[in-house]
Amino acid sequence: MADTKREIERKYDVTTDATLPDLSGVAGVAQVVDRGVAELDAVYWDTPDQRLAAAAITLRRRTGGADAGWHLKLPVSLADGVREEIHAPLSDAVPRSLSGLVRSRVRGAELVPVIRLLSARNLCHLVDADGALLAEASVDQVRAERLSGGTGTAAWAEAEVELADGGDPAFLDKVEKKLKKAGVRRSDAPSKLARALAETAPREPAVEPAAAETAAGSGRKPGKSGAVAEAVHTAVGEGTGTAGDHVLAYLRAQRDALVSLDPAVRRDLPDSVHQMRVATRRMRSAFASYRTILDRTVTDPVGDELKWLAGELGVDRDQEVLAERLTTRIAGLPRTLLLGPVRGRLRIWSVARRAGSRRRTVAVLDSRRYFALLDTLDALLAAPPLRPAAAKPPGKALPQAVLKDYRRLATRVEHALSLPPGPARDVALHQARKAAKRARYAGESAVPALGGPAKRFAKRMKSVQGVLGDHQDSVVAREALRALAVQAYLAGESAFTWGLLYGQEEAAGADRERELPQVWEEASRPKLRAALGG
Question: Pick from 162, 185, 200: which residue ends a domain?
């Protein structure tokens, strides 16, 4: 069984014979309590090519001290020293509760011991007038031994201040001010592991100039796609930036978000499924929007796999959104209109569907198909299938793609508005919603290159998406309410409340349909398109 805490700490460089200055003068500290010296033995695990370390993730098995066991640390804000620390009891092998949380990084690779750290920790507690712990401060004498990929060793000392659970991070600023006055400065190394890996790494042998030239010229001559990639690389190196550069940067950000959100989804953290789904949709939309920049014969199959993943994640997310919507509707009704066990039936219905969707989501994240998709994305971004337009300035290529998505949306909105209210219009509005989302994502992806015009365009497309999205939510809610009404009727319960809620959702959908023309008129102003060059 694993438990979690938020770790907020700062590390400082000190000499091997250093001691901490007197911290009793720090505002709020009533007493500095000496906790003695603890002998800590930690073995850090990673893949042979150090995939976890590259992502600033640490996985260790530690004995000694008050928190012996397995620790997985996931970065939250490295600049502020904030990490999520997940504990599991001691065992010989890596616990499954932790190995699952790094599968999006590790995939098929083996986890092996890479570094051993032996630390003598001189620890003290900083407590307030009530005896409550404010922070732990220590000086560690560290010895590092490389266990994989070499046999190097290193030794150093460092000071560490870790905020107590629930503490105010501003307290660490007060402690740091005191340390600075004593000549103690913040460490450049983000963690002990990072320092150990750097200082125990095998030294690269010097390469003779002639050998270096031979190695540089040994690669095959790039083909058409490779030549474009080389042109993009050259342009980026000169600081000019290209359309391909901007699109690839956007895609890498979405790939990184997808991989980083994997452990949050496995832990069922709030909004994690939604954010992961958004990353898949943004990447798929970028493939569709920038077909003049990326070869679609390569990206279309990847887009199909992203669609599959978004759909699987949607089973969980859509159920969550629907349950929240219906719960809010019920909460807004007077008690006199709640006939029968309405809340109980909704709760049973929601829990049953949620449990099934949750199991399905985790199974998808453990599937070969999902990991194959991650590998494919890595390979695509390492050797992108760039087309000649990728070498163009972003001010020319990106607006064309954004405006093409806008015209696609305009066609769908106009078609939907031409239909009478009913199922056919509902379907057409749903198709327009998907087009609005794609246009919005195209605008957002172009913001770093095009600035304000793209930002304003994306904002207007988001407003259209919002109206269409709420309309679609009302359509889905009506389908669920009808099913709940049938269940209630068959169980001998009153279906009155479900019918009442159905009517509310029907009215909400009609409201959005009446609202759409005005929102669309505002979003489709010629002046806004002209700013993008359309």
Answer: 200
